[in-house]
Task: inverse folding
């Protein structure tokens, strides 16, 4: 990894990009809301003004109808006088265009609703909403200043600006803060992983108990690292073991051939040496085959071929195969097998597992002693009355190539129990080694998930 | 016998071909599954020896195609010994027997001979006899020279297996598979122990031997020389 990769520019962080997106959406929302408010308010104010203009027009028209142009002019003057706000404009013009009353300078060019710009001396510049109505006496124009509406609009725009700007600033500040926090967490994880990558396999990511999604992610990564480390250790162990345990028979083979070459004479001697060499080779090949088989079982590839079979029959057969071997050692092989127990699994592998266990029991059991095999639904035990296995070494014997010092003298590859452990694991069985006082008792238990009826 | 060997590894092929030829068989060799299928289609062979891993068409595919074409020549399937599921696959594809690689040549020879002489299942005899040894399968009794011999059930089954193959060499693994359905080699002397106990019951001191040990190969039940 490049050292700069972990310290990327702050604007290239996910948190900052999310902040920007969030900001843009907030601004868009503020704008839309402000626009809507502006439009609705302005419309309402304009309508109100138009209503007032229309009402004034109708009142004045009525006055003209009742009292003639004179009365109308008086009424207009009275209104102008009463208007303190200075926003009302009126005009009564004679048919020839001459101004009869009012405070508007000139008549608009057309009838009906219109907006007029006020210009002229003594009049503040502005816009008015006007209604020009033809009367028998002349033209009546009623108008209202639009300045209050414009003021409201300006106020609204200002408010929208403040709100939008505030949201922008707050969002930006908050986003940067979040981005900094997230970046710091990510950088810590990144740095920790970089150390693991550099070979510190035992280094772990910082993770607070409980914690947020980062802590959960860190814990998950730590668990994965634990697993990887465990697998690497196993692999290293196996590699070392293979190197060591295969070197011994290979050395023996080499010495044997060397000796035969130097001293061998006569067909019979050569034949004997060749047979011995083949036997050594067979042992080597058998170790390879056993290792591969354990690896295959551990990989779980065989689970697809699981079927229900009668484990009671298998146990009886295995006991039968080993009965003469036990008798040779003066041992009594006692079997208590509940009939017709069905197991979902691989018949061949279970057969080999039981054979390995019984082989061990007969081999390591006391001469003239007793070996027992018990099978009940969900449970199988095989016990001998030999020296047993010290509690501290019970885990070790389940690993490949582990052979206790006491067993060095007897033939075996140290792979038997490793295969037993792998097969038990494949079948979801719990395997435990215990003290039969004296001797070893191996117990296999399994749940209903592995059982069935034939 | 005429044997077709389908094996791509030239070293192994030469080893097997030479051994089978020395044992008096005629051996044709095909180096890939397609040639093997072509040659075996003639149905002129007594036994096929087919490797699992083959170029062009693998052993499983070749056997399936042959069986689908109705050719029933007995076939011995060669698999990797460590292959956990290989045996089942081979038998399902139509093989009659299988052998894990690497193997001892004596083992291969014994199995090829056994395949070629496999008797039809229909004519199962009820009385098996070699020299003065008799086994009555209906009464489940064994006698030698008219003298009744008491055998445990496991000893009876072992002797029956040997009697049905009287005169043939039967290897340790053939016994493990045939008598106890053990498809792996326990690498201990269990078979030897069974045989020696059976021998002790059949061969009273002074009586001529019936179960002969074939050095480096297995056992053979036959009339005394």
Result:
């Amino acid at each position: 990894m490049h050292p700069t990769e972990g310290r990327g520019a702050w604007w290239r962080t996910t948190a900052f990009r999310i902040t920007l997106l969030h900001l843009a959406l907030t601004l868009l929302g503020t704008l839309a809301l402000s626009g809507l408010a502006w439009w609705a308010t302005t419309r309402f104010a304009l309508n109100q003004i138009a209503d007032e203009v229309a009402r004034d027009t109708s009142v004045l028209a009525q006055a003209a109808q009742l009292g003639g142009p004179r009365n109308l002019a008086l009424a207009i003057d009275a209104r102008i006088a009463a208007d303190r706000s200075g926003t009302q404009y009126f005009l009564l013009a004679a048919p020839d265009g001459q101004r009869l009353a009012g405070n508007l300078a000139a008549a608009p060019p057309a009838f009906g609703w219109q907006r007029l710009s006020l210009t002229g001396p003594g009049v503040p510049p502005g816009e008015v909403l006007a209604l020009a109505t033809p009367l028998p006496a002349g033209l009546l124009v009623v108008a209202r200043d639009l300045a209050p509406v414009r003021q409201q609009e300006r106020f609204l725009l200002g408010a929208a600006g403040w709100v939008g700007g505030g949201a922008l600033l707050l969002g930006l500040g908050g986003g940067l803060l979040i981005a900094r926090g997230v970046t710091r967490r990510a950088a810590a994880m990144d740095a920790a992983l970089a150390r693991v990558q550099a070979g510190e396999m035992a280094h772990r990511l910082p993770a607070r108990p409980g914690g947020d999604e980062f802590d959960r992610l860190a814990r998950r990564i730590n668990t994965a690292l634990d697993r990887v480390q465990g697998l690497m250790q196993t692999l290293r162990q196996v590699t070392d073991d293979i190197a060591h345990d295969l070197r011994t028979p290979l050395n023996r083979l080499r010495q044997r051939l060397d000796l035969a070459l130097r001293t061998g004479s006569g067909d019979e001697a050569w034949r004997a040496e060749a047979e011995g060499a083949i036997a050594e080779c067979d042992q080597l090949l058998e170790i390879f085959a056993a290792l591969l088989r354990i690896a295959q079982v551990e990989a779980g590839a065989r689970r697809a071929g699981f079927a229900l079979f009668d484990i009671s029959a298998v146990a009886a057969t295995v006991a039968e195969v080993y009965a003469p071997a036990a008798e040779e050692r003066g041992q009594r092989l006692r079997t208590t097998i509940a009939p017709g127990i069905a197991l979902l699994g691989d018949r061949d592998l279970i057969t080999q597992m039981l054979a390995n266990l019984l082989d061990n029991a007969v081999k390591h059991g006391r001469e003239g002693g007793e070996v027992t095999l018990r099978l009940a639904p969900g449970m199988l035990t095989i016990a001998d009355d030999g020296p047993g296995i010290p509690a501290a070494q019970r885990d070790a014997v389940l690993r490949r190539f582990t052979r206790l010092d006491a067993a060095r003298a007897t033939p075996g590859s140290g792979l038997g129990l490793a295969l037993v452990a792998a097969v038990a694991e494949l079948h979801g069985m719990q395997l435990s080694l215990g003290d039969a006082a004296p001797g070893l008792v191996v117990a296999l238990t399994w749940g209903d998930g592995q059982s069935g009826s034939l | 016998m005429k044997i077709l060997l389908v094996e791509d590894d030239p070293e192994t092929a030469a080893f097997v071909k030479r051994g089978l030829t020395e044992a008096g068989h005629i051996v044709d060799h095909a180096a890939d599954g397609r040639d093997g299928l072509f040659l075996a289609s003639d149905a002129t062979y007594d036994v096929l020896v087919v490797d699992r891993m083959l170029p062009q068409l693998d052993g499983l595919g070749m056997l399936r195609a042959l069986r689908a074409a109705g050719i029933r020549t007995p076939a011995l399937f060669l698999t990797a010994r460590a292959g956990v599921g290989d045996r089942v696959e081979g038998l399902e594809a139509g093989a009659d027997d299988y052998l894990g690689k690497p193997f001892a040549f004596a083992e291969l020879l014994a199995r090829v001979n056994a395949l070629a002489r496999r008797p039809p299942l229909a004519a199962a005899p009820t009385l098996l006899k070699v020299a003065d040894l008799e086994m009555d399968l209906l009464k489940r009794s064994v006698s030698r020279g008219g003298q009744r011999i008491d055998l445990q059930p496991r000893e009876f089954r072992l002797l029956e297996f040997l009697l049905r193959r009287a005169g043939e060499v039967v290897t340790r693994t053939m016994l493990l598979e045939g008598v106890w359905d053990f498809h792996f080699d326990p690498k201990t002397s269990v078979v030897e122990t069974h045989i020696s106990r059976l021998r002790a019951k059949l061969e009273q001191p002074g009586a001529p031997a019936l179960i002969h040990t074939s050095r480096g190969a297995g056992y053979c039940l036959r009339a005394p020389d």
